[in-house]
């Protein structure tokens, strides 16, 4: 898309939060550009799906905006974290040493968020939108331990700044394999003094009270993995792929269920091949679109027309006694079974064609011939 790089520059540089109504207005303009005055054969969700999931990979501008803003978090992780934390949240009482302690908190009414100024509020909105769209698990590996409204059992612990001074700020640092790590393990990892044993017993009791036993498995959301990593290549593309995948997988799953209702159970290999054929069926765009319309059953059928035109006959115009669904018209109708039987026979005959190599006297070239008897049978 020609305009996408120009829009991405605006999305990436924007210091303010864009409301969703802006992107809805842009999508309305794009919708007119894509379809014009013709009938909309595919839904907007299908158009946004990747090509390997039966879509056209139409850019989702709102997701691109979120992905562009998330790319700043990678550089924020490498910047002066303490200075940023003091700037956006001066009333942290010593328990905030990393900006992600605030960003990774989910509730909207967080005290630090409301007192942090427009920069922190904007970053928190972006992060919450990314976690919602990407369907990230909660709690996750980097759920903040301190000043997190989602963990009320830990907010009442004394001397929380003591843990922060030792670098313990995330859930994954004290939890492993469904239980709180041993005190000796924390001593080895964070050089805790022995006199913190009582504090350790307090946090262990608080976590077991908060989550029960065993503690839920902690997954690492892909945005966190990217932000905490060191690879800065194609950050926007990585975030965009992650954010669009859940919705695209849901569309592909519903499409598979629709075909399975007619064909029976489909293996993953067969379904992946069917989706891949959308790109490989032909180099011509019109042929690929026709294949895509068939995959999504987008063509109007008598049954579909009868739903909004009650005077229209929903029965098959060929056999007359069956409800004319899309699958019936292209496959199940008795009048078309003869055609598919001939196609199957032709495919069987073509697979039996014998190829033989002949080498010319001047140049070595491969020449093929078709058995005359077999060719006569094909013509018949």
Helix-strand layout with pairing:
Elements: H1 4-13, H2 20-35, H3 44-48, H4 61-77, H5 81-88, H6 100-103, H7 111-114, H8 117-133, H9 152-155, H10 160-165, E1 175-176, E2 179-180, H11 183-190, H12 197-211, H13 222-228, H14 235-263, H15 268-280, H16 285-295, H17 302-308, H18 326-332, H19 334-350, H20 372-379
Q: Which structural traits does this protein have?
A:
two-stranded antiparallel ribbon; 56% helix; elongated; mainly alpha
Structural write-up:
This protein is an all-alpha fold. Among the domains are: 208 residues, no CATH class; 48 residues, no CATH class. The chain is built from 20 helices and 2 strands. The chain has a two-stranded antiparallel sheet with strand order 1-2. Strand 1 and strand 2 form a beta hairpin. Helix 1 crosses helix 4, helix 4 packs across helix 8 and helix 4 crosses helix 13. It comes from Aquarana catesbeiana (American bullfrog). This is Reverse transcriptase zinc-binding domain-containing protein.
Mean pLDDT: 81
**Beta-strand residue percentage:** under 5%
The radius of gyration over CA amounts to 30 Å
**Largest β sheet strand count, sense and barrel closure:** 2 strands, antiparallel
Task: Please give the share of residues in helix.
Answer: 55-70%
How many β-strand runs? 2
SSE-based structural type: mainly alpha
Question: Could you give the order of the helices and strands?
Answer: HHHHHHHHHHEEHHHHHHHHHH
Strand order in space, largest sheet: 1-2
- Give the count of helical stretches: 20
Give the N-terminus to C-terminus distance in angstroms.
49 Å
Low-confidence stretches: 107-111, 354-370
- The best one-word shape is elongated
Protein name: Reverse transcriptase zinc-binding domain-containing protein
Organism: Aquarana catesbeiana
């Amino acid at each position: 898309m020609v305009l996408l790089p120009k829009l991405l520059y605006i999305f990436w540089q924007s210091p303010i939060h864009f409301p969703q109504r802006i992107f809805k207005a842009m999508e309305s303009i794009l919708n007119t550009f894509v379809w014009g005055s013709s009938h909309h054969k595919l839904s907007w969700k299908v158009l946004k799906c990747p090509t390997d999931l039966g879509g056209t990979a139409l850019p989702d501008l709102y997701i691109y905006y979120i992905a562009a803003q998330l790319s700043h978090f990678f550089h924020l992780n490498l910047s002066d974290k303490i200075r940023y934390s003091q700037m956006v949240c001066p009333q942290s009482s010593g328990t905030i040493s990393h900006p992600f302690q605030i960003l990774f908190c989910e509730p909207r009414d967080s005290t630090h968020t409301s007192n942090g100024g427009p920069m922190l509020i904007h970053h928190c909105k972006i992060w919450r939108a990314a976690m919602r769209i990407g369907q990230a698990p909660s709690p996750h590996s980097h759920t903040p331990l301190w000043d997190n409204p989602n963990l009320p059992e830990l907010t009442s612990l004394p001397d929380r700044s003591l843990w922060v001074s030792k670098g313990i700020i995330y859930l994954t640092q004290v939890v492993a394999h469904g239980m709180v790590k041993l005190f000796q393990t924390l001593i080895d990892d964070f050089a805790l003094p022995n006199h913190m044993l009582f504090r350790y017993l307090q946090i262990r009791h608080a976590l077991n009270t908060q989550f029960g036993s065993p503690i839920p498995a902690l997954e690492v959301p892909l945005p966190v993995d990217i932000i905490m990593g060191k690879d800065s290549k194609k950050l926007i593309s990585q975030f965009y792929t992650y954010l669009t995948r859940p919705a695209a997988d849901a569309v592909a799953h519903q499409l598979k269920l629709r075909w399975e209702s007619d064909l029976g159970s489909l293996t993953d290999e067969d379904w992946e091949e069917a989706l891949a054929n959308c790109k490989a069926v032909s180099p011509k765009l019109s042929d690929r679109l026709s294949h895509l319309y068939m995959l999504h059953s987008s063509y109007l059928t008598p049954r579909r027309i009868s739903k909004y035109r009650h005077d229209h006959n929903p029965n098959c115009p060929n056999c007359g006694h069956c409800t004319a669904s899309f699958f019936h018209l292209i496959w199940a109708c008795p009048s078309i079974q003869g055609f598919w039987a001939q196609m199957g026979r032709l495919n069987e005959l073509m697979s039996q064609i014998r190829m033989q190599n002949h080498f010319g006297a001047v140049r070595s070239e491969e020449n093929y011939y078709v058995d005359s008897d077999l060719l006569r049978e094909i013509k018949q």
